[in-house]
Amino acid sequence: MTIDQLWAYFAEADNWQGAQGILTYLAQQLLLSLTSIAVAALIGLPIALWLGHLGKGGFLAINISNVGRAVPTYAVLAMLALREGGSEELGPYGRAGLATLIALTLFALPPIITNAYVGMRQVDREVVEAAQGMGMRGSEVFRRVELPLARPLVLTGLRLALVQVWATATIAALVAGPGLGNIITEGFATNDTAQVVAGALLVAVIAVVLEGGFAVAERMADPLRSARRAARQVTVAQQRPSGLAGPIGR
Amino acid sequence: MSALASHAATLAAAPTIDTSRDCYTFPANNWFCPGYLSDYQSEITTALIEHIRLTGLTILIGVAVAIPLAVLARRSSTLESLLLGTSTIIYTVPSLAMFSLLVPFTGLTGTTVVIGLVLYSLTILVRNTLAGLRAVPDDVRESARGLGYGPARLLLRIELPLAIPVIMAGVRVATVSTVALVTIGYIVGFGGLGQLIAVGVDTDFKAQVTVASILCVALAVALDVVLLGTQRALTPWTRARA
After folding, report:
1. What is the ipTM of this complex?
2. Using only C-alpha atoms, what is the Rg of chain B?
3. What are the residues facing A59 on neighbouring strands?
């Protein structure tokens, strides 16, 4: 394969259009990834945040990630697709859309749950006690103290889940399902390396874009952003004379 | 006609545990069928052994590559960020694409699967080896130097042994992920239990997909337990502290 062949693949209008074009597959995969992340967040976040608030179920919340790693998504997808009606068309999600959605949602749950739980638990106990001492009720402590402080890790979990789900969604093509994986499997089947590289490139580039976009949104949404920046300037200023300026937890 | 006849036989049979082939063949095609296990024993064993072989090779090669890389990366921060950056990018390449892309170089072989999976495992293994080496207290290093340890002996006798718990934690995560990822290797013809799943998907063979999936998870858990035991055996001092 040469760069010219790769370029020719992208330059060919037919490769972009139609039910088996890049644009359709791209839309399917984006829709699948975003929907499964949204569903996983709706299910996982309330449970994880609530457990984190109570300080219970830590073993479960942390080990669910280890269990999740051990279950091959391909196996889950295969079982779901083989069910009665498992490979049926589901609107814009494409063939075997429901099976893919369920498999990806299950795949997204562990990182979301574990990070949200850890985020809640690493909130300084003294801060929580101070809030309680000020007369805040449990729900107020949760909403006004723990949640804002746990936010960075909660968002990290969502970002990890999004990128992993996006990359993993390609294997839906292995059960004749939707998404960009079809470009790779088709290229592989027809011995067209340029097409395989094109598919891989699309998935990898968009993964990086999603990751970057999420990181920017994360920083914009940080309520303590200006406070953090101010604090950093103060710390640096204070540290300079004592000669202790160094990267802390970089 | 024969399918109908066997269907009639299934219906007529008493509802005892079905160990014959009727429960996994059409039209019953059950998810669970003990008859499948006995009839397909040799296929299952072959696939399981291949799965273990591919996983084992991946982890052994991964560790053999990751430790020298981490030791090298420790010497220069440029090299370190280059290495960590590259391995993070590799991680965003879907496994499907990774194996397809390696085929022009290594063909439809087990080597293709192992190389792809080693590349993935390095992300975890290099990171953890670096973290483990970095966690060795400076006092310990100083004392060893004071006792006349040279750089090589310091690394082999002091730093690496002390880094074992963190390195092993990485090995465990990498092993469990590798067991799951081997299944995708079926696209180049070497997927261990993934091969059984793929055939099951293509031929609507439910009992086979169930057994292969359960074995994948069981294998991951079993290897994790073995590695935990190995780690405990290699680092007796961590037990005394706990």
Report:
1. 0.84
2. 24
3. none
B chain contacts of residue A203, beta-carbon cutoff 8 Å: 92-94, 97
Q: Which two tokens stand for residue B1?
A: 């006609």
Query: What gap in Å lies between CA A23 and CA A18, rounded to an integer?
Result: 8
d(CA A17, CA A9): 13
Q: Find the chain B residues whose C-beta atoms sit closer than 8 A to any C-beta of A.
A: 31, 89, 92-98, 100-101, 103-104, 173, 176-177, 179-181, 183-184, 187, 194, 197-198, 200-201, 204, 206, 209-210, 212-213, 216-217, 220-221, 224
> What is the percent of chain A where pLDDT is above 70?
88
Evaluate whether B118 touches B105 at the Cβ level (below 8 Å).
no
Q: Phi and psi dihedrals of A90, rounded to 5?
A: -130, 90
Residues with Cβ within 8 Å of residue A126, at least 6 apart in sequence: none
Q: Which amino acid is at B32?
A: F
Dump pLDDT digits (tens) for A45-79: 999 999 999 988 888 888 888 888 899 999 999 99
pLDDT at A237: 42
The residues of chain B scoring below 50 in pLDDT are: 1, 14-15, 242
Q: For the whole model, what pTM was predicted? A: 0.83
Distance, C-alpha A55 to centroid of its chain: 25
User: In chain B, where do the E strands start and end?
Assistant: none
DSSP label at A172?
G
Which pLDDT score, from 0 to 100, does residue B4 have? 53
Burial label for A67, CB within 10 Å (0-12, 13-18, 19+), is middle
Task: Collapse the DSSP code of A244 into the 3-class scheme (helix H, G, I; strand E, B; otherwise coil) and give the result.
Answer: coil
Grouping H, G, I as helix, E, B as strand and the rest as coil, residue A90 is: strand
